[in-house]
Amino acid sequence: MLRTFILPALFLALVCTTLAQEARPAQPPPAANDNDIARWLAGLPPEGALRSFALVPAWKEHARELNKAWTESEISRVAKVRQWAPAALGQTCTGDSPVFYFFSGADFLYPNALFPNAKTYVMCAREPVGSQPDPTRIDAAELPAALATFRKSLSSLLDFSFFITTDLRRDVDQRHIPGILPVLELIIARNGGRVIDVLPVHCNAGGTLSADARAKGGSPGARIRFRRGEQAEQTLYYFYADISNAGLKTHGGVLKFCESLGRGRSLLKAASFLPHEGGFTRINDWILAHSSAVVQDTSGIPFRSFPRGQWALRFWGRNAEPIELFQKYAEPELQAAVEASASLRIPFGFGYQYEPAKALLILAERTGGQ
Description:
By secondary structure, the chain is of the alpha/beta class.
C-alpha cells in the first residue's frame, strides 16, 4: 500500500520539477570581459566567455590573416624599433613620464615601442573614438565583412608604419566594430598586454574627465588600463579632438588634462605636416612648453621653431627631404643641420619614409635648466 502511494507521488514531483525548469527563462551567456574582447579582436584565442566565438570560420580566417600581417610587420619594422630605442634614446625611451602623441590616428604601435615604460599615454586625433564591440551581437552572416574591414583599417600601419587618414576614417566607420578604440585594444593584446578595463570618458573644457560619454562640448574619449606580465599597470587615453588653433577653442581641455599629468615626452609622426601650417602654432607651442623631449619625423614641429640654446637635436638618417606629396614643406636648413651632424644610422623606416635608407628620426631634448 505504501509503495502504491509513494511511486505516483515521486512521479508527480518529477513532472513538477521538469515543468518548473522549462518555465524558467533561459540564462543569458556570461558577459565577455574587456580582455576577452581585445584578444578576440586581435585574432588571439579568448580565455573566457568568447571561446566559442573563436571557433567560427570567419574568426579563424581573421586570426590567420592578422597573424601573417602582424608577424611581417614585427620582423621588418617594429622589433627593430624596440631593439634600437633603449640604447639610442636612453632615458627618453626608458623613463616612465607621460607620452603625448598628437595627430596619432590609431597608431599605438610606435609610442609603445619607443616609450615602453610610460605610466600614461595620451593620443589625440580627429578619428571617431567608437565603442566597445560585442561579438555576441554580430550576425553570423555579417561577421566576415566586419572582420575584414576591421583588418583593413590596420593595413597601412603594418605595411608602411603610418595610417592614411582618409582610409582609416572610412574603415573604422562601420556598425559592428566601430572607431579607433577596437584598433587600440588589438594592438595592446598583440603586444602582450592584458586589458584590465575599458571606459568611455569625456574631457570638459577645464581638463576634467568624467565617465559621461553623452556629455556635451569638450572632447569624447576612451581610457584603457592594461598590464604586460609582471610590469606596472599602464593607462592609454585616446581623445577625439581638433587641435588646430581654432579647434582648441572647443577641445583645449585635452591640453589641460595633459598638463595635469606633468611634463612628458612627445611623439610626432606622419602628421600630414600640419605642424608646419599657420593654423597649428598653438599646439606646437604647447608641445615645446610641456615636453622634456620630442621624437619626430620631418612632418612634426619645423626645425626653425625649436628655440636655439633650449633644445639639443640629434638625427638618425641623412635624408630630410619630404615625400613628393609634401615637397612644399622641405626645410633646407634642416637638411644642412643633418649633414653637419654626426652620421647615425636608422635601422627601420619611420613615418612617411618607410624605407630605412630614406628615413629620418629627429630627437630634440630640452637642455638643462629650461
